[in-house]
Design brief:
Blueprint (H helix, E strand, L loop, with lengths): L3 H17 L3 H26 L15 H20 L4 H21 L6 H16 L8 H13 L5 H21 L1
Helix pairs in contact: 1-2, 1-4, 1-5, 2-3, 2-4, 3-4, 4-5, 4-7, 5-6, 5-7, 6-7
Length: 179
């Protein structure tokens, strides 16, 4: 339920709404969710169906690079559409912040396995706290649940989830500099 595509769908809709202040923001938010979460999730499922990976978790970090490149390309393409469509600055900056976070995930992943799920959960919560209300920080309990589940399932260590959550929170810094 809290996998990245779902977190990004809910989060980007909320960020889009905050950026535009009206229903059109939901459309921009959906485009953001499509490019940052839904298209990459579709790619993972497509490759999984082809037998490239055993499941959607892609536990072998050496096989993750193509996913990061799909995410970067998809976010980049979505950002171009947003620029051409004169999207509100807030949603575009959130997309670019997620793009920067993905570069960080890719860089770390070349030498060490980091939790993407934890990073996305943390980024969504921190961005919602910035654009809506600090009360959104209470949703870090959901980020903690994501981190716990990644460790409990044996996909990550505590350090890998903490690093992912930290990188996700740092996405807000990229957002602040862009806004």
């Amino acid at each position: 339920m809290l996998q990245p595509r779902n977190a990004l769908l809910a989060g980007m809709l909320g960020i889009g709404l905050a950026a535009a202040g009206e229903w059109t923001g939901l459309l921009w938010g959906f485009l953001g969710a499509l490019c940052a979460g839904l298209i990459p999730a579709g790619y993972i499922e497509w490759e999984r169906g082809r037998g490239t990976w055993g499941d959607r978790h892609v536990v072998d970090r050496t096989k993750r690079a193509p996913i990061f490149f799909v995410i970067l390309g998809s976010i980049g393409a979505g950002s171009v559409v947003m620029v051409l469509g004169t999207a509100p600055a807030g949603i575009l900056v959130a997309m670019l912040a997620l793009w920067v976070m993905t570069i960080g995930l890719l860089a770390v992943n070349t030498v060490w396995k980091i939790s993407v799920d934890s990073a996305v959960a943390s980024a969504v919560v921190s961005l919602l706290a910035v654009v809506h209300s600090p009360w959104w920080l209470a949703a870090y309990t959901l980020t903690a649940a994501v981190c716990w589940s990644r460790v409990a399932l044996g996909y990550h260590t505590v350090a890998q989830t903490v690093a992912g959550a930290g990188l996700g929170a740092a996405t807000t810094v990229a957002y602040a500099f862009g806004g």
